[in-house]
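Bench notes, afternoon.
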Amino acid sequence: MTLTDRAAALRALHRPGDPLILPNAWDPGSAKAVARAGFPAVATSSGAVAESLGHADGEATPVDAMLDAVARIVAAVDVPVTADIERGYGLGPAELAERLLATGAVGCNIEDSDPRTGALVDPAEQVALLAALRSAAGAGLVVNARVDVFLHATADHGELLDAAVDRARRYLAAGADCVYPIVLGDPTLIGRFVEAVDAPVNVLARRDVPGPAELAGLGVARISYGSGVYAAARARAARMLTAVRDGRDPFTA
C-alpha cells in the first residue's frame, strides 16, 4: 500500500457518527499494542512522546528526535499513523510536509496556539500555514487542525463557541480534513460545534467528557485519548514500584 493509499484509508475512517477511536501511542511497543487491540490506525501524542524521550511537551523536543520517534512508530505497525506535531517545531510548511511524509506518517495534528506560551495565533496566519501545508503535501497527509480557543480559556466555553466555529470553518476551507476543538467537553456545545462546521470533528476523551457512544450520537468523527493512556501506564508503573520498595506484591498493587 502506498502512502497515498494509506492517507486515503485514514481519511475514510473519519465518519461522523461512527468515529475513529485513537488511543494515542508514544513508542513502537505502545503502537503495536494499539494495532493488536484492533484499532485501524495509530496516533501519536506529542506530550507522551516528548516525556518518553526525556523532554517536556511544548516543542521542547528537538525536531529530529520527534520525527525519528514517529518513524520508529510507523515502522512498527501495518496501519496508518498520524503524528501529533504540535506547531511544526519551527519548520516551514513545505519542509514539515516533506520530512513528515519521509517518516511514513500519513496524518498530522497541527495547533493554532503557540506551544510555548499558549497564545492563540491569528486565524489568518493559521489559514496560511494550513493552505501551504496542504499544497506541499497534496492528498498525502490527513490534516487534523486543532482549534485551541478553549484550551487556556477563562471564559465560559459557550461564549467562545462562535469564535471556535469561525476558526474551524476557515481551517477546513484552507484544506484541513478534520477540526479538533481540544478540551471542549460539554455535550450540548459539542453537538452545536459539529452541526455548525458540518465536517469531521475530533474530540479529546477525558474524565467527565461523554463516552464514545454518546459522542457518536453527537456526530463526532474522531476521538483521541491524548496522553491519557501514557499517563495511566506511568501511574500503574509507579504503584508497582512503590509496592516493590515496600516489600508488597507489585502485581496486586
